[in-house]
């Protein structure tokens, strides 16, 4: 039996979307379909839901798992959400609400199809591609980037304090690094024990590599721009982010729309999970929801 991803801030994001049964909604990050299915259940036959994911394993899972609930008004598309404008050319309607729930689902971490997303899966190769259409894997970055470039990458995308030491050690031992375990053991060796928190010291390096392999921050900037451009007046964009680099992009973009008078911030204070949600689902603990409404 598959262990399904628990949707984060579900009640809050459904409230934020303010669903009208006849309107058009887009879930840019289908994942295991937790948010999508709840949106779909609130629509009638005139309403439309478009769900997107770049991971074909996620799409296959949802099509199997929800096979009895898939109706003609639920469109599921395999694509990077950065190409939302191309997808929307096929539609005559403008969306009334767009949800973006960033990162990976817990099932991708646990059942990665050998892509090494999690630093706990020691035997898996250093791949990290969410989409099989991408060509560059995490290991290719370790091989192809110079020590200086790797340092910048770990610093910029991982906010890693020991970026230089880790990069140096990687380049020195590159022929011995193939699996997740090879990299995590190297990081353990390099990061001074005194500075190791209760969290795994490799998590920042893994975050940085994943962001780079999937060009995550640029995709986010693109989808925000496209979403706002295509959105109906009074339509809303809701973004759930999980680390400060993503949240900063969302915050700055939404603030700029509020300042220019094109949008109204519906989340002046960021919306975070309740203590109860964070306890039941520890993965939700770092989640932040921001909402903007188009004038
Ligand atoms: C946190 S999960 C979404 C979970 C989902 N809301 C649920 O409740 O089941 C994020 C999903 O977004 C997908 N994803 C991340 N970046 C993407 C991108 N640039 N384009 C399309 N899908 C993306 C991932 O493959 C993953 O399946």
UniProtKB/TrEMBL annotation:
<dbReference type="InterPro" id="IPR023397">
    <property type="entry name" value="SAM-dep_MeTrfase_MraW_recog"/>
</dbReference>
<feature type="binding site">
    <location>
        <position position="101"/>
    </location>
    <ligand>
        <name>S-adenosyl-L-methionine</name>
    </ligand>
</feature>
<keyword id="KW-0808">Transferase</keyword>
<dbReference type="InterPro" id="IPR002903">
    <property type="entry name" value="RsmH"/>
</dbReference>
<comment type="similarity">
    <text>Belongs to the methyltransferase superfamily. RsmH family.</text>
</comment>
<dbReference type="GO" id="GO:0070475">
    <property type="term" value="P:rRNA base methylation"/>
</dbReference>
<dbReference type="GO" id="GO:0071424">
    <property type="term" value="F:rRNA (cytosine-N4-)-methyltransferase activity"/>
</dbReference>
<dbReference type="Pfam" id="PF01795">
    <property type="entry name" value="Methyltransf_5"/>
</dbReference>
<comment type="function">
    <text>Specifically methylates the N4 position of cytidine in position 1402 (C1402) of 16S rRNA.</text>
</comment>
<feature type="binding site">
    <location>
        <position position="81"/>
    </location>
    <ligand>
        <name>S-adenosyl-L-methionine</name>
    </ligand>
</feature>
<feature type="binding site">
    <location>
        <begin position="33"/>
        <end position="35"/>
    </location>
    <ligand>
        <name>S-adenosyl-L-methionine</name>
    </ligand>
</feature>
<feature type="binding site">
    <location>
        <position position="108"/>
    </location>
    <ligand>
        <name>S-adenosyl-L-methionine</name>
    </ligand>
</feature>
<dbReference type="InterPro" id="IPR029063">
    <property type="entry name" value="SAM-dependent_MTases_sf"/>
</dbReference>
<protein>
    <recommendedName>
        <fullName>Ribosomal RNA small subunit methyltransferase H</fullName>
        <ecNumber>2.1.1.199</ecNumber>
    </recommendedName>
</protein>
<feature type="binding site">
    <location>
        <position position="53"/>
    </location>
    <ligand>
        <name>S-adenosyl-L-methionine</name>
    </ligand>
</feature>
<keyword id="KW-0963">Cytoplasm</keyword>
<keyword id="KW-0698">rRNA processing</keyword>
<keyword id="KW-0489">Methyltransferase</keyword>
<dbReference type="GO" id="GO:0005737">
    <property type="term" value="C:cytoplasm"/>
</dbReference>
<keyword id="KW-0949">S-adenosyl-L-methionine</keyword>
């Amino acid at each position: 039996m598959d262990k399904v991803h628990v949707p984060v801030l579900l009640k809050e994001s459904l409230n934020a979307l303010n669903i009208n049964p006849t309107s058009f909604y887009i879930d840019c990050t289908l994942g295991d379909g937790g948010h999508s299915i709840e949106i779909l259940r609130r629509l009638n036959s005139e309403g439309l839901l478009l769900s997107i994911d770049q991971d074909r394993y996620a799409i296959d899972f949802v099509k199997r798992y929800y096979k009895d609930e898939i109706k003609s008004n639920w469109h599921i598309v395999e694509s990077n959400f950065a190409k939302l404008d191309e997808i929307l050319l096929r539609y005559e309607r403008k969306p009334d609400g767009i949800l973006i729930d960033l990162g990976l689902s817990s099932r991708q971490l646990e059942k990665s199809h050998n892509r090494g997303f999690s630093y706990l899966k020691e035997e898996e190769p250093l791949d990290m591609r969410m989409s099989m259409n991408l060509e560059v894997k995490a290991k290719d970055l370790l091989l192809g980037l110079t020590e200086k470039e790797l340092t910048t990458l770990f610093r910029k995308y991982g906010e890693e304090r020991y970026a230089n030491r880790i990069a140096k050690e990687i380049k020195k031992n590159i022929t011995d690094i193939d699996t997740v375990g090879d990299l995590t053991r190297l990081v353990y060796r390099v990061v001074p024990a005194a500075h190791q928190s209760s969290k795994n010291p490799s998590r920042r390096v893994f975050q940085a590599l994943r962001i780079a392999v999937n060009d995550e921050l640029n995709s986010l900037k693109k989808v925000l721009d496209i979403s706002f451009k295509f959105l109906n007046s009074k339509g809303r964009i809701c973004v759930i982010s999980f680390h400060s680099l993503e949240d900063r992009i969302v915050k700055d973009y939404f603030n700029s729309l509020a300042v220019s008078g094109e949008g109204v911030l519906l989340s002046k204070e960021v919306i975070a999970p309740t203590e109860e949600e964070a306890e039941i689902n520890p993965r939700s603990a770092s989640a932040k929801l921001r909402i903007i409404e188009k004038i």
